[in-house]
Amino acid sequence: MDVKRVEEAVAKSLMGLSALLVAASLGAVLIVVLVRGLPALTLSMLTQVPRGGYYLGGEGGVLNAIVGSLCLAGGATVLALVISLPIVLYQQKEYGGRTALAGLTRLALDVMWGIPSIVYGAFGFALMLYLGLRASLLGGIIALTFVELPIMARATQEVVKMIPAELKEASYALGATRLETASKVVWRYALPGTLTAILLAFGRGIGDAASVLFTAGFTDRLPSSLTEPVASLPLAVFFQIGTPFPEVQQRAYASAVILLMVVLTLSLLCRLLSKASD
Amino acid sequence: MSHISVRNLSVSYSGQLALDDISVDIPDGQITAIIGPSGCGKTTLLRCCNRLIDLTDGAGVSGSVLIDGVNILDPSVDAIRLRKKMGYLAQRPYPLPMSIYDNIAYGPRIHGVKDRQELGRIVERCFRAAGLWEEVRGRLRDSATKLSVGQQQRLCLARALAIEPEVLLGDEPTSALDPVSAQLVEKRFLELRGDYTIVLVTHILRQAKRLADYIVFLYMGELVEQGPTAEILANPRDDRTRAYLTGDVS
Lengths: 278, 250
Known about the structure:
The complex is a heterodimer. Chain A is globular and about 65 Å long. Helices cover 75% and strands 0% of the residues of chain A. Chain A has eleven helices and no strands. Chain A is an all-alpha fold. Chain A folds into two domains: 2-40; 44-52 and 60-276, MetI-like (MetI-like fold, Orthogonal Bundle). By secondary structure, chain B is an alpha/beta fold. In chain B, the strands form two sheets. Chain B has a six-stranded mixed β-sheet, with helices on both faces.
């Protein structure tokens, strides 16, 4: 009996320790970024684009990178969602879930999930050279879509897998077709989980530097067209932290705070939306 | 009113026989109870009547289920049109992830009813028939999942009635309900008898006694006995039926 109690206590302590480790890791990241970034975070960082000499400590902000990142990640998220939905539907057993093609797709998505984003960046760059395109918002969106697609598709698929078969049967029993059941019942049921999948994919997309390094380029201007280069927050952090000027380095942390705020705001928004849709 | 007859129906799951050469005539406008111990094939028989069996992996079906003389197991028969004729209640209520109103309007909408007033009339009529109208009339826009389990099952009954079926199929529809809710659902079935042919799967013998006009007794995938309730209960011809009725097998 005593041995069992000790086992229980050890297991419980391990679980508590693991949970603490996760919370502490997040806490450490937040503290470092906030302590270093908050003093440099001014209103002008949020509302202005870099002026002349910004990277040498001059005036301006990273509005170009904020808007650029939202455009890049937003565009890629929409594109990944549009591609994911039919994939997820096809994975259901009523469609092609048991076929070899469905299995191959799952395998492909899993492999894609593991591919480092710099590879997608290099692939996107090669593709752009072949097509005669230059670094642009469109190029960045396409490269980021590769990064986001496996996350979005696999996470949504897990959500859809959890839908009780009886719920779908309830719809079929009323004489609904597969498409009616999928569009009116399955997606509504899966909406809160799909929102989480969207957030996961967006979070990964907006924070990725490697895939947009070659494909989106960087500019001090606000994005104005799909074919023009666009700035992004991760690259803004990268460029600022690489300068020898301490005040610019501090702005890199301030940019990281902005990135965190964007992701946090979207996370809260998603939670609210998902609660409202319950 | 549709007439259902089952002829030489055999069903197997991945090669394992679940129903063996069943032939049954379901009386029109009455309540038929399919009874028998767990795993005897009751649900399988019911699911053949609206072809939900099509959705079960590895199910092999032979024989025929004739509805008004048409073998509905024939792949050329449109399962969607068939299911519109057959209202279905599962063991547990599964409200669709939408409002109380939309749960009932869902069926008519997918079958082409677009007019709002018409939908409103259907919703009220079906809720009244399911004995739920007074409880939900002020909260039709609430999510259906906010209803109690008993109310949800009556919502599912209303939902099934909304597609104007000719037959109601119930797969142990009160098994997940508390006694009061179960009594309410049973009362609705008794009220609906006559307007619909009702087929209920149940393993509660007393429920079959209370509700059924006709009993079909299955045992280990075989049809052992069928006939009017009073006759089956008073004079079972087969030893297995007798053993089931006396509680020697359950």
